[in-house]
């Protein structure tokens, strides 16, 4: 059982915490913390790992009774926010159409053209390297990169639009730092590329991976279309001033992803699961079989708090010993004269990343971007 809130707390708070620590957590309007954000905040502070799991469950509910998609798949992908030409994006609920070439390939492959196709448009991690597939993957997949996608919630999107920072022009015109609303959310997901290999797909399904339709543009000209398996997910929101940083990954990732050592070794997570995350994993995995092969690695939510290090083996693979979600994102800042702040510290040839928040003096001349590094994807409107 989870930890119990003292009976002396207000009844409404006790009710919220009871919901938090049971399988009937109320997911209604969870992106805005339901009807009582303060109660959710207090419940989170009492047991961050249980709340992280409850949010993960809410994110992975079916979006509608008619759709196979999960709630998080309805969030806005950043490639549809920060457009290549710097133009204003479509409204939050409208999507750019899936490329016709993708639909044609998918139809020929027997895939469902009416369901979501994720554009897995990224492969580089923060350090500029890729994470390679290996170990027990098919020979044709060895050396292929794990792919990534970023998504954001509506209130994140609305704030970006309101401030006009969806392109680099808007960011250059800033006269003060940004401050996103408490209901801002972002996700970063990592994916093992399956393609059309049905045996590999079945193997990953057996290991509890969530599998969906996806595509990416190869060499700027040819679309690759197929299936992909969700290997990891960063979940962040601004319930607390320093944001809440939660990360999940599949327990079998070491079977399919490898280090960049010679010879490669199975990729593992060196930062967790933390002891508190282990307890939450035990409780929630038993209650949610469809998510039971995913585990919470840990939660960060306050500068200087524990855990100091937090990484996802799929998203911060090679620099887990220097990975702090909160400290790294705390450097998000932009200067019209200097460009984006460099979070690589001038030590060891610039490959050291902050694990503690930097002092305010480091950001003189910059406007801070309120931890939101996805803004760096913005392009100039010419």
Automatic annotation (TrEMBL):
Keywords: Signal. Residues 1-19 form the signal peptide. It comes from the Bacteria. This is Cytochrome c domain-containing protein. It comes from Azomonas agilis.
């Amino acid at each position: 059982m989870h930890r119990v809130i003292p009976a002396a707390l207000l009844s409404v708070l006790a009710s919220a915490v009871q919901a938090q620590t049971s399988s009937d957590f109320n997911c209604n309007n969870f992106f805005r913390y339901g009807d009582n954000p303060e109660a959710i905040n207090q419940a989170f502070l009492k047991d961050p790992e249980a709340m992280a799991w409850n949010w993960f469950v809410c994110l992975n509910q079916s979006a509608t009774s008619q759709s196979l998609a999960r709630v998080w798949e309805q969030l806005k992908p950043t490639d549809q926010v920060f457009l290549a030409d710097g133009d204003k994006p479509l409204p939050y609920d409208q999507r750019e159409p899936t490329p016709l070439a993708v639909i044609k390939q998918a139809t020929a492959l027997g895939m469902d053209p009416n369901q979501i196709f994720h554009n897995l448009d990224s492969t580089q991690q923060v350090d500029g390297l890729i994470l390679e597939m290996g170990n027990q993957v098919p020979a044709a997949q060895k050396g292929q990169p794990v792919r990534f996608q970023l998504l954001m919630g509506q209130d994140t999107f609305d704030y970006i639009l309101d401030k006009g920072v969806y392109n680099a022009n808007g960011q250059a015109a800033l006269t003060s730092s940004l401050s996103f609303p408490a209901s801002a959310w972002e996700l970063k997901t990592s994916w093992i590329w399956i393609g059309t290999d049905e045996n590999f797909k079945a193997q990953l399904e057996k290991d509890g991976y969530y599998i969906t339709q996806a595509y990416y543009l190869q060499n700027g000209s040819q679309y690759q279309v197929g299936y992909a398996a969700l290997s990891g997910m960063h979940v962040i929101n601004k319930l607390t001033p320093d944001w809440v940083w939660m990360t999940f990954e599949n327990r079998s990732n070491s079977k399919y992803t490898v280090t960049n050592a010679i010879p490669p070794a199975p990729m593992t997570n060196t930062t967790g699961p933390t002891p508190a995350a282990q307890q939450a994993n035990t409780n929630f995995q038993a209650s949610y079989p469809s998510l039971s092969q995913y585990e919470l690695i840990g939660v960060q939510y306050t500068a200087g708090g524990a855990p100091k290090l937090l990484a996802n083996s799929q998203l911060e693979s090679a620099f887990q010993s220097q990975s702090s979600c909160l400290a790294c994102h705390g450097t998000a800042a932009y200067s019209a004269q200097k460009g984006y702040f460099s979070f690589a510290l001038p030590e060891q040839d610039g490959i050291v990343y902050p694990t503690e928040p930097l002092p305010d003096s480091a950001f003189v001349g910059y406007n801070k971007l309120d931890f939101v590094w996805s803004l760096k994807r913005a392009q100039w409107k010419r």
